[in-house]
Amino acid sequence: MRLGVNIDHIATLREARKTVEPDPVKGALIAIEAGADQITLHLREDRRHIQDEDLFRLKCELKDTQIPINLEMAPTLEMKNIALEALPNTTTLVPEKRQEITTEGGLDVVSMKDYLKEYIRELKESGIKVSLFIDPDIQQIDASLEVGADAVEIHTGEYANAYGKNVEKELERIKKAAKYAKEKGLAVYAGHGLNYENVVNIAKIKEIEELNIGHSIIANAIFLGLYQAVKKMKEIITNARG
Ligand code: PXP
Question: Which of 22, 30, 121, 240 shows a CA-CA span of 20 to 30 A to 5?
């Protein structure tokens, strides 16, 4: 199973100060050193975290590696033009609402079939693989096939937010959708809200070949690195005093 590390929230921290650190591209290189199989980033229409320049710098840094770039984006004209210029390995089409805190729910492929067919055709003609971020729903999988997607990424957010008996129910929906999509010939990925605990059941689903995980990895990175970061500052201050 491949792990795509989503670097968005490194940029969230940088944008909180509109400064240059922490640099998500530097984060991508560390993630790759640690075993990431792909770097995922979401260029949002409001540019709240990743900026256009990050995408192009990442492309440049990774050009001599085998590590693919997965660009998540809303299926808009602006984003299509950026993708056609940046040429990531994959684009994952996601729904986007300005006010949302994070991507809420999957793309409604069923209601956008005609629009997506043409949109996806153009991306694929440029050699970009297209994945659609969808809820674990059979109708959405059928529509994804119809519009010519290469892959579907199953939204695991409902599962991640579920409590008690609903966890099993949501997990079953994901398993059923993964099996169906794979049988129909789509590559199957999953992501959203996954962490060290809830990822275990998802990682066991053999039809899923790739996970894209961001927030939890970056959140844990703070605590895995905070000790060293404080220690280093303390040393510098102490040494400066002589
Ligand atoms: N996959 C897709 C399509 C997403 O939109 C996101 C969030 O940007 C993720 C995966 C990663 O979700 P999280 O940050 O909750 O791990």
Answer: 121
